[in-house]
Amino acid sequence: MKPAKPQNPVDLYFMDARSKLIDIAAFMDRVERDGATGDFRYQAFLQALQELGKGDRATSVLLSLSDPTTELIPAATTKAACGAWPGHA
Question: Which domain of life is it from (predicted)?
């Protein structure tokens, strides 16, 4: 019996990636239309998009949105995570 040929990742994941890309475009349109482009989360989002041009994209995007500090803070400043670090490294 012949070993199964692995499926092409484009065949497997293109439609899902296409859908996410359209969602991202719609998100950006809404933020820009509402004038919320100065929000630190949107700014972090734009920075993360620039990581797509580099190697190891998933790691680069995740790190660009993460808090790089190692010192603990005495108490949380919010009730929930916001998905982007508001500080500057």
Answer: Bacteria
* pTM passes above 0.90: no
- Residue 87 lies inside a defined structural domain of this protein: no
Question: Counting beta carbons within 10 angstroms of the beta carbon of residue 72, is it exposed (0 to 12), middle (13 to 18) or buried (19 or more)?
Answer: exposed
With tokens 């916001």, the residue in question is 82
Residue 59 within any structural domain of the chain? yes
Q: How many domains does the chain have?
A: 1
Query: What does pLDDT average to in each consecutive run of 10 residues of the chain (89 residues)?
Result: 85 97 98 97 96 93 93 84 79
Beta-carbon contacts of residue 6 (< 8 Å; ≥ 6 apart): none
